[in-house]
Specification:
The protein is of the alpha+beta class and about 575 residues long. The protein folds into three domains: about 270 residues, 2-Layer Sandwich (BirA Bifunctional Protein, domain 2); about 130 residues, YbaK/aminoacyl-tRNA synthetase-associated domain (YbaK protein, Alpha-Beta Complex), CATH 3.90.960.10; about 100 residues, Rossmann fold (3-Layer(aba) Sandwich). Strands 3, 7, 8, 9, 10, 11, 12, 21 and 24 form a nine-stranded mixed β-sheet that branches. A five-stranded mixed β-sheet has the order 16-14-15-17-20. Strands 28-27-29-30-31 form a five-stranded mixed β-sheet, sandwiched between helices. The longest helix has 21 residues. Belongs to the class-II aminoacyl-tRNA synthetase family. ProS type 1 subfamily. GO terms for molecular function: aminoacyl-tRNA deacylase activity; ATP binding; catalytic activity, acting on a protein; proline-tRNA ligase activity; transferase activity. Pfam families: HGTP_anticodon, tRNA-synt_2b, tRNA_edit.
Length: about 575
């Protein structure tokens, strides 16, 4: 492609873009914002999209998945069948047609694919079946401020598998997992597959694929010794459920704590360590109040609570409900003397305390010298807190550390979550109807592009990995008005094209400095510069990533280029 005629509107500065990927993709003329969280992909970005999509297609096709294209507009009736019309949340984009019929702009396609298969697949003999698509999705994100990392409109690959039994699902899940490992490796990403929560998609058994980046919104708990990694929502905390301290505990004592609501304030006021205080948090799980206890220096994990009670919706109670159930305002809630009987779930670390301080279920009052079993009873002990740096790895007991990550892929074992709700069944070998057992597997294509830029850049611009670069070679003629340079550059451009090399030819009549700055910003892996030594038949070849350079003849460039491209990724 000749750059003189190319649509590459570069910018020297951008406005309020915070993420490096957002800044560089805007400055490099890759994307333009139409509205908050909605972007146009300009020609260079579209070439990158195409490269990533092709990698995805090759790996999906390799494991036998078949590509199709599902509608982006979904009838609300399908979402009402599964309950997600109300449960998905405010991110769901709802609209009506001229007949006032409700629709959804698809954020994901579990309902649509299940509807298709329940009408077309009626026997175990046609299973397993894996289908995928690459399509634009829509989610009304609350804060779409990170460029392509979090948009309201984005491009996604979503795959779905249908099975007659769990063993078949396990096999496909393994194949998808490995395909994802291949995809993100081929895209040049430093990533980890981490244990995760299924969220609004539902199902049990899931992994997220996280690109390691300080720009990430997710926290990953990683072991320093083994390959264990998990999203903080799912990271398992190991520990004893018994106290080793056998010191006799005085009788429970009520103490005034006027205006002291926070753990820090109460600990300072009573002169006790925060680890000796216990936070009592009232949750509403599918409409039912439950009380959760964690140590004062720990944070409750909402996802673990939700999974423990197997609730579709689990959230902290409002102030009115707290007062009704406990008799006290928030900040003074405890497990002793509740007004209403509720189930009490206790984190295992609380059980290690010989005595504790808890809210007294009275305003401005706490209880000291409280003991589990003696002063209140527990319905269940479980791991209910967030893991912390320095905790023991649940696999090898080495030390856990935290890293930030960007989620680019997610694989789920859905089970029968959707097939049962939508009555999608097949006949088993005995002629009995059974619900499909399903899997779901997503990759954020546009988010992957931004993640690549987050990891592959320097102070001058983007550094594309060869596999996804818009062009392999950026050919620059320093001065197109110089006959020797123009002739040599034109000839080399033709030969590179004939050799099947993707090349961007900067044939503009710009100053050399402008061309080199643009080349660094755009980030093609290999740069070939035709300059002052053109009259000697010599050009410079240079790697964008390392700066390694060498003077060669055009013939040598063509001969050595494959080796330079192999070294371009470092």
């Amino acid at each position: 492609m000749r750059q003189k005629n190319a649509f590459i509107p570069t910018l020297r500065t951008v406005g309020e873009a915070e993420m490096v990927s957002h800044q560089l993709l805007l400055r490099g003329g890759y994307i333009r914002q139409l509205a908050t969280g909605i972007y146009t992909y300009l020609p260079l970005a579209y070439r990158v999209l195409h490269k990533v999509e092709n990698i995805v297609r090759e790996e999906m096709d390799r494991i036998g998945a078949q590509q199709l294209l599902l509608p982006a507009l979904h009838p609300a009736e399908l979402w009402k069948e599964t309950g997600r019309w109300t449960n998905y949340g405010p991110e769901l984009v709802k609209l009506q047609d001229r007949h006032e019929r409700d629709f959804v702009a698809g954020p994901t396609h579990e309902e649509v694919i299940t509807d298709l298969l329940r009408d077309e697949m009626n026997t175990y003999k046609k299973l397993p079946m894996s289908l995928y698509q690459i399509q634009t999705k829509f989610r009304d994100e609350r804060r779409p401020r990170s460029g392509l990392l979090r948009g309201r409109e984005f491009i996604m690959k979503d795959a779905y598998s249908f099975h007659a039994d769990r063993e078949s699902l396990d096999v496909t899940y393994h194949h998808m997992y490995q395909a994802y490992m291949n995809i993100f490796t081929r895209c040049g990403l430093d990533f980890r597959a981490v244990e995760a929560d299924a969220g609004a998609i539902g199902g049990k058994g899931t992994h997220e694929f996280m690109v390691l980046s300080d720009a990430g919104e997710d926290t990953i708990a990683m072991c320093e010794a083994c390959d264990y990694a998990a999203n903080i929502e799912m990271a398992e905390v190991v520990g004893s459920e018994k106290s080793t301290d056998k010191t006799p505990v005085p009788a429970m004592e009520k103490v005034a704590t006027p205006g002291k609501r926070s753990i820090q304030d109460v600990a300072a006021y009573l002169n006790v360590p925060t680890r000796q205080l216990v936070k009592s948090l009232l949750f509403i799980a599918d409409g039912t109040p439950v009380l959760v206890l964690v140590r004062g220096d720990h944070e409750v994990n909402d996802v673990k609570v939700k999974n423990l009670v197997d609730a579709s919706l689990c959230e902290l109670a409002d102030e009115e409900t707290i007062r009704r159930v406990t008799g006290a305002p928030s900040g003074f809630v405890g497990p002793v003397g509740l007004k209403e009987k509720v189930q009490v779930f206790v984190d295992q670390a609380v059980m290690q305390l010989n005595e504790m301080v808890v809210g007294a279920n009275e305003a401005d009052t706490h209880l000291k010298h409280v003991q589990v079993g003696r002063d209140f009873t527990v319905d269940q002990v479980a791991d209910l807190r967030n893991i912390q740096p320095g905790d023991a790895c649940p696999r090898c007991s080495a030390t856990i550390r935290f890293k930030r990550g960007i989620e680019v892929g997610h694989v789920f074992k859905l089970g029968t979550r959707y097939s049962e709700a939508m009555k999608a069944k097949f006949l088993d070998p005995n002629g009995k109807e059974q619900p499909f057992i399903m899997g779901c597997y997503g990759i954020g294509i546009s988010r992957t592009i931004a993640s690549i830029v987050e990891q592959h850049n320097d102070e001058n611009g983007i550094i594309w990995p060869v596999a996804v670069a818009p062009f392999a070679v950026h050919l620059i003629a320093v001065n197109m008005k110089n006959e020797d340079q123009a002739r040599l550059a034109e000839g080399l451009y033709e030969k590179l094209q004939q050799a099947g090399v993707e090349v961007l030819f900067d044939d503009r009549t710009e100053r050399a400095g402008v061309k080199f700055k643009d080349a660094d910003l755009l980030g093609m892996p290999v740069r070939v510069t035709v300059g002052a030594k053109a009259n000697e038949g010599t050009v410079e070849i240079k790697l964008r990533r390392t700066g390694e350079a060498k003077e060669l003849s055009p013939e040598e460039v063509l001969k050595e280029l494959p080796d330079w491209l192999k070294r371009a990724d470092g």
